[in-house]
Amino acid sequence: MSDAHAAWYPHGLAIRDYWRGKEDSAITAHRSDGTTYPMPASVFFRAPRKFPELERLAVAECRGRVLDIGAGAGCHALALQARGHAVTALDISPDAVRVMRARGVEDARVADAFAFAPRAGGRYDTLLMLMNGLAIARTVPGLRRFFRHVRGWLTPGGQLLADSMDLRRDVDFRRWLRNRRPGGSKYFGEIAYRFEYGGKTGPKFPTLFIDSRTLMREAGTAGWRGQVLFHEADGSYLARLVPESYATEA
Question: Is the pTM of this model over 0.85?
């Protein structure tokens, strides 16, 4: 099992157990700033009427063939299928993918987004990354690599819809940031997580929370054009990103 698969193993177990009837299944998330909080597995099984406004908007903004990256238990993929979209749903957890298939996601695949390649001729009109979807980039340089990696997955006129948040709006993180030793060169939103569930604890893994201003700057550097479609009070936001050549054509 690779480090990435091992890191998400507890997450997949919680999803599997919830699907099997353990309705109190919850992952414990440990963040490198010292914050620990529960993530009820039920959140990955929400019906569309339970989506927050940001996610409802993202689903409504999807066009054509959709690649749902980091699909979890498939709640967004199922909502999109119900709206008539052809959807490919990716997740790094085999347990999560088995649950998605059992729930009716028609094309669910186990894949690390950085290793994924669409099948011949299989470009997408929308890449969808929700629930802090940009976290998989891990670092700001990783985000630049991700933009280069996925550019060829899009049809002309295609779009990337993704959410993230400015962690400086989080009270616990802001307190930790004030007490952090000065001199660090790392972007403040490059942090680490560790998941725990059912007596299983995965290894630490890097993740990225990126503020919208930095995202737009990095997107522009990578040859993409972006706009923020929605802001939440807690610092979360939804962005649309389009390769520059496609934006010009549109």
Answer: yes
